[in-house]
Amino acid sequence: MFKPISSHRLTNLRINYSFYQALPCPTCTIYNRSKNSPAHDTGNVLYSQFWQWKAPCYKMGGNNNHFESKKVVFVTVGTTSFDSLVTTVDSDQVKEALSEQGYTHLVIQMGRGSFIPKKSNGEDGSLVVDYFTFSSSIANYLQSASLVISHAGSGSIFETLRMAKPLIVVVNEDLMDNHQSELAEELAERKHLFCARPQTLCEVIKSLNLDTIVPYAPGDANPVAKLINKHLGFPAD
Amino acid sequence: MVEFVSIFLVVITTIIVIRVVYVISQSSKPVRNTSQKPLSTLVVLGSGGHTAEMINLLSVMQKDWFAPRYYIAAATDNMSLQKARVFEGILDDKGADGSQFMQIYRSREVGQSYITSVGTTLLALGHALWLMVKIRPHVILCNGPGTCIPICAIAFIFKVLGIRWSYIFYVESIARVKRLSLSGLLLYKLHMADQLFVQWPQLQKQYPQARYVGRLM
């Protein structure tokens, strides 16, 4: 189970890092709200500048808030829209469940959807919530996340698995030809990810156990290429 | 006169049938390629996940054996050609070795009505024919959605007519675990692909003529 980092681990970490100040800090997330970013209310901006990449930082000097601060949940719907996922994620139950699991930030890539989530700066101790429509650098968001909640597109799934991030795939039941659930269910059976529907997402988050995840070994295209070469009479190696 | 025409038709039909059977039986056999010359290659790109899989495959293939490479993507899909350009390291429409990037009309967009889709299907077929006449590729690589069906059908007709013998390789998307996609099923049932790969063993069990040698992703 994911819990906020306990105090004695914190102390150890702090001692270690005080010697290696030049190294990037693994617990510090990379997203920081930029003061200069343009207003972002229309939902039509193609490349959102709302979140900006910022280098990991060190705040030493007896301030250990730093280590418990950020655990980002990144939600991505891909190139289309998936309003029922965004609506579910933005619901109070799901946000509470995420808080209980120790997550602090929620970043939603909402695509072409029309449902606009509520932004929150987390002043009342709840999740910090922000959203954007599309970004050319989804990889950076994935990298910064402690948990990814994704639509069932194979592109997003494998990009996340390759980064070895915990992943909950939410199958869109509104799609006509719903072959996408095949992949998510197969990979869930092999324990590489968790599979949910919008209505079961909350339950899945509540019972989330990241220890059961089996890391995904990336595939290898070489055997296919070799057979093609062989068929065409090219030397096989 | 009527007798002559009917005999003529029977003969023509027989010749075509024999030729089709010959083409199908030859397609599954390995090629004796003694010259080892590079083969012009047409790569049909799908969208998002499909393109990523195709790029993974291309990245382990010998670029000098498969050249020049022609990339085709749906006209509504700008991302895929962009990814292919990045993969090739080419910024404009033509590369130094003659590699090209092209867009093709789709027969039907999601949600389009069936009446208008008759017209757009004809347009898409015409466009595919035009591109195939121009390119006449030796090798066709495809892994996904509808865009590749008109291309493969035209390639097959070219084979039957003796215009160009092209080798068709189809890799079913990794998203297909239990059933082939419509494109995959058509190519499988009509024996149009030289080799058809699937990425899950349980799928290969259902379609014994398909091959399973691991996953691309």
TrEMBL record, chain A:
Gene Ontology cellular component annotations, sorted alphabetically: UDP-N-acetylglucosamine transferase complex
One Pfam family cited in the UniProt record for this chain: Glyco_tran_28_C
Any one GO molecular function term: hexosyltransferase activity
Residue ranges constituting the Glycosyl transferase family 28 C-terminal domain according to the UniProt record: 72-222
Coiled coil residues, start to end: none
GO biological process: dolichol-linked oligosaccharide biosynthetic process
Top-level division of the source organism's lineage: Eukaryota
Name of the protein: Glycosyl transferase family 28 C-terminal domain-containing protein
Automatic annotation (TrEMBL), chain B:
Transmembrane regions listed in the UniProt entry: 6-24, 114-132, 138-158
Keywords from the named record: Endoplasmic reticulum, Membrane, Transmembrane, Transmembrane helix
Predominant subcellular localization, coarse grouping: endoplasmic reticulum
Compartments where found: Endoplasmic reticulum membrane
Biological processes per GO annotation: dolichol-linked oligosaccharide biosynthetic process
Topological category with respect to the lipid bilayer: Single-pass membrane protein
Pfam annotation, one family: Alg14
Keyword Cytoplasm belongs to the record: no
PANTHER family the record matches: GLYCOSYL TRANSFERASE-RELATED, UDP-N-ACETYLGLUCOSAMINE TRANSFERASE SUBUNIT ALG14 HOMOLOG
GO cellular component: UDP-N-acetylglucosamine transferase complex
Annotated organism of origin: Tagetes erecta (African marigold)
Gene Ontology molecular function, alphabetical: N-acetylglucosaminyldiphosphodolichol N-acetylglucosaminyltransferase activity
Protein family: Belongs to the ALG14 family.
Official protein name in the record: UDP-N-acetylglucosamine transferase subunit ALG14
